[in-house]
Each structure stands twice: as C-alpha cells, then as structure tokens.
Amino acid sequence: MDLPSVRRPACLCASAVRDVKKVARRAGREFLPARAHHKKAAIVVRGIMSLYRNALFFLKGIHEFTREGYDVASASFMSKDLEVNVSGKSFMITGANSGIGKAAAIEIAKKGGTIHMVCRHRDRALEAKDEIVKLSGNENIFVHVLDMSETSKVWQFAENFKKDHTTLDVLINNAGCMVHPRQVTKEGLELNFATNTLGTYVLTTCLITVLEKSEEPRVITVSSGGMLVQKLELGDLQSEKGPYDATMVYAQNKRQQVVMTEQWAKMKTNIHFSVMHPGWADTPAVRMAMPEFYRFMKAKLRSPEQGADTIVWLAVSKAAISHPSGLFFQDRTAVSAHLPLAWTRLLPGEGEAFMETLQLLINHCTVL
Fold first, then answer.
1. Full-model pTM
2. Which Pfam families does the entry mention (predicted)?
C-alpha cells in the first residue's frame, strides 16, 4: 500500500471541516455504537476506566520511567550496540536545540553523523549547534528554522529539503509542545494537535521519497508514556468538546503518534518505523509545561542523555532494526503500547480512518 501524496495545505476551510466531521461521525457510528440512552452509563464507565488507567500508569511510571528505572534497565544494555561509526549518514532531528533532542544530536554527532537540526527559534538553535560541534568535534551540523505547527511551512520545508539533498537516512520526530489554554493556529488547527500530530504526519509523509533512497531508512517518533492512559479518540481530534486539559490533549497526541507509526509500518515496508517513550526526563519542556509534576518528581527524573538513549539506539544500532517495524520501545526494549485491561486498543478500521482524517485535513484548501 502506498502512502497518499501530500499536497500543500493552506487554511482549514469550511469544506475541509465538513469532510473531517463526516469522517468523525462515521467513525463514531462504526467504532462507538452506544445509543443515546446508554450515554450516562458510558460516561460512568469512562470515568472508572480513566481512574484505573491513571493509577496503573503512575505505578508503572514510578517503577520504570524514573532515573532508578533507567538504572535497572540499562544494566542489561549491550554496549556494543552503540559502538558504531555513522559517518556519511544523515539524521534529521526536530526539536534538536534542547532537552532529549539536543542530547540525541550530540551522541549521533559524536559517532560521525551529519545532523540536520529542525528548530523553531534560530538563536537557540545556533547556540545549540555551537555546543554540539564543540562536544562532538563534528562540523557537519546544519540548522533549519521551522515551526512544526504551521503545516504549510512544514510541507514547503520538506519539498525544499528534497530538492537540496539526495538522501536522508534517519528522521527523528522529536519536536512537541503542551500548550494551555487552548490555542488555534492561523490554519484553524488546535496548536498541540498541529505541532505534535499533523506536523509530524506532514513532515514524515513528505520525506518518504528521500528516505527511500537510503539503504537502511529509519523513522523514529518520540512519544510519551502518557499515551498509555488514552484511547484514540477519532471524534474530537481538535479538542473542541468538553473541558480543555492540555495534559490529556498531549497524551492523546502521543497516542496518535503511536497509531501513525503502526499505520506507516504497514504502508511502507522498506522503511523501519518505530515510536518510543524516553521516560520521565528533566528537560526545559517538562519544567515549563508541567511545573507541579516537575516539583514533585525532579529528584527522580532522568537526565536528558538517559531520555535520549533509546532514540540513539533506534537511530544507529543494528539491533534496533532486527525488530519488526511499527513497534513501541522503552529502554531499548519493544514493549506493549497498552496497559493491561485498559480498553485502549484500536478496533478494526480505526487506524485507517484516523489516517484518512489526517489526509483530509492537509488536502483541503490546497494551493494548486
């Protein structure tokens, strides 16, 4: 199955909204068949499941996602997996100017890789580039300024990159945001969804053709363990219904990234797709977006380097591509993308309907 082509997106016009809502309504009928008189019961069940998921997630997180969890997991790491030289290979990393994105860029640069940093702020990116060059001794570090929430510009960037570069070996989708209160972009998209989900979809889909020119192309998407508490919600991708909770919106976006990875793996078998959880790491994004969580957990958080370890492993090791494409990883291990008995698994056709909805969002209001 081929990936659909991506045309240049512009504004989210009325016809696009109607078509997207049509898909969502169809999804609601096909995948959420409860009748109106069952709504109250459904609300109660969802509330109970939410409490169950969150409790199980926190217990899992305390044991596995912290610095101590990394120490336990890393005891079984094979050091030879990262004893590689990737000179001559190119790596694109979004959000590479801070946190785990920068940590991954430093480690890959130390191994000789050419790094394309895709960042929103030029000054911060240039400062990070200087640090990466200094720490790695690698001069092949290039800065590209791009706001991942602006899908038209993401499309244009990818098209220009393909014109200027013959190959790309690895794409690391790391950029993300957790913005509250709810904001809408110039294109009519909820900001977190535009950045975390649609921007990732557009960039990856547009770069497929240049990735396919590599001998071992890989796409790694940095998700979050928070997605474990979320089931894909096809009927409210823009977070328009009910109270707005940025933490839950972010977790839903991260579930969407898992679904995208699973679908891409089915569509393009010549590219190795993976999605991963870096654990709970001490990064500027966490400090800014989740201050209460940071204050409560800061003594237990992983370093950016520990958070980036599995990203680097997925990007450069032979061991990573011995696993099937489309899996979810934590600490160099393929793990389930679902908590036990949490009712978060897709029903037949949901993944395909989700990808169709994303395609509708970017294909409408095109500039031909």
1. 0.89
2. adh_short
